[in-house]
Amino acid sequence: xxxxxRLYPDDKTCAMHLERARWPDxxxxxxxxxxxxPYRSTTRPSVLRCRACRKDNRLAVGTVMEGxxxxxxxxxxxxxxxxDRPDLSAAELQRQLGLSRYATAWMMGxxxxxxxxxxxxxxxxxxxxxxxxxxLGRATGD
Length: 142
Ligand SMILES: [Zn+2]
What we know:
The protein is mainly alpha-helical. It has five helices and three strands.
């Protein structure tokens, strides 16, 4: 098992880490502002439904993942690889992710590198193995 598979074995685990990265103090609905644990779907782990207003909070909204149909797992893997090596080529990213299409790896790499550049000095060498998820965070605060 590779480090990527250990850190991000499935979409459910990825969703849990992304939720924690986005709401370090606990989930808070972006629609109504209500705090408290949301409804979590096992079939759609990227969607958190507010218990107060029942609206969906999508983990991808406002992030590089928005509009993509790729599983969360692949985004987390890609973020981890690009975090470690921002100069990683699209061909290498494609190989490591096991993607069939070069264009997909190229798109992911471009989005993630732009986030690396945007974070700049904030992209510190953190001991947290999930620090790479800051690349999958919102580009603008909410
Ligand atoms: Zn709400």
